[in-house]
Amino acid sequence: MIKQVQPFFHLHKTSMKSVTATRLGLFNTCALSAVLAVSSLSVGQADAAATNPAQKPASVKAPAFRLKPYSASYKASIKGVPFGGSGERSLTRNTDGTWTLEFSANAAFFGMKETSHFASEGAQLVSNQYVQQRTGLGKKPTEYATFDWASNKVNWQQSDRQWSMDLKPETLDNLSYQLKLRMDLAAAHGQQLSYDVADDDEVYQRKFIIEGEETLKTDLGNLKTVRVKIQRKSNNRATWIWFAKDYDYFLVKLLQEEKGTAYTIEIKEASIDGKPLKKKQTKKVSERPKHP
Q1: pLDDT at 45 (0 to 100)
Q2: In this structure, is residue 287 part of a structural domain?
Q3: What are the distances in angstroms from CA 270 to CA 73, 82, 118, 146, 251?
């Protein structure tokens, strides 16, 4: 029986699953998921995560950069037109040395939250617990996942339903892999990045292609970014994510194109390690950066 914690929300594997037309009309859950760290969100219970200590996976390397607490808010638009959707993301260090990554998104008639509790072992993130919840249209019972590294199993619970899956070494949850992507970008040198991710019915591999550097105009000023594309087997959906080079590859924008419609999430405000990111006056650049 998985010990339940205060509900938090999940960026589900919508890129691998079908999305209903209603959800797309209200708020693109896939776009919000791929984002924040994009990463990343609400407040978790560190005690619950600590009840199932993680065993250190293999191939732990020196960290590319030091994890820093942060909070960020994002705005959303469809085909360039704002529609009131918003997203929040945060990373918090707990008193026992573990971390809590949280994400929430809201729009008319729809809301989602997810949280990830994990430990940091060198360059590797070790998932302990993951929780996801949806409200409004598309509502479903809260899902809880506990990672048991002693037996290499992830145990799920949703209402009265319980099930388990085998884990591969260094498997991440559906939120922490976004933070690991940020950590790896600095040393990627243009190579493809991929991560094993535990979803509710399988462990799948999420792959990313680093396409190049680009300067974006944002609410925080012009930012030097690295543009990353999610690799998919199908051409029906294309997703790009921009990460700020000068701010530890912080997620600043996500663009998803699907069925002739473009969904965009862009940074509004952010604070890293207690220091707000302030708008800087820089040279003028295009508001609509080119992409393939």
Answers
A1: 26
A2: no
A3: 6, 19, 22, 30, 10
In a domain, 285, yes or no: no
Count of CB atoms within 10 A of residue 86's CB? Answer: 16
State residue 136 phi and psi, 5-degree precision.
Answer: 70, -145
What is the CA 119 to chain-centroid distance, rounded?
A: 16
The CA-atom distances, in angstroms, between 236 and each of 16, 193, 216 are 11, 22, 26
Question: What's the CA gap between 196 and 203, in Å, rounded?
Answer: 6
Instruction: Name the nearest CA neighbour of 72 among 44, 105, 118.
Output: 105
Q: How far is CA 125 from CA 147, 248, 288, in A?
A: 12, 16, 34
Residue 100: which domain range? 14-276
Buried-state track 30-45, b at ≥16 Cβ within 10 A, e below 16: bbbbbbbbbbbbbebb
What per-residue confidence (pLDDT) applies to 279? 67
* Dihedrals phi, psi of 78, to nearest 5 degrees: -120, 120
The answer to whether 10 touches 112, Cβ cutoff 8 Å, is: yes
Residue 3 inside a domain? The answer is: no
- The pTM assigned to this predicted structure is 0.72
User: What are the mean pLDDT values of the chain's consecutive 10-residue runs (292 residues total)?
Assistant: 31 36 37 35 27 38 70 87 81 96 81 92 93 79 92 92 92 93 82 90 91 94 94 89 92 90 91 84 49 56
* pLDDT computed for residue 280 by the predictor: 58
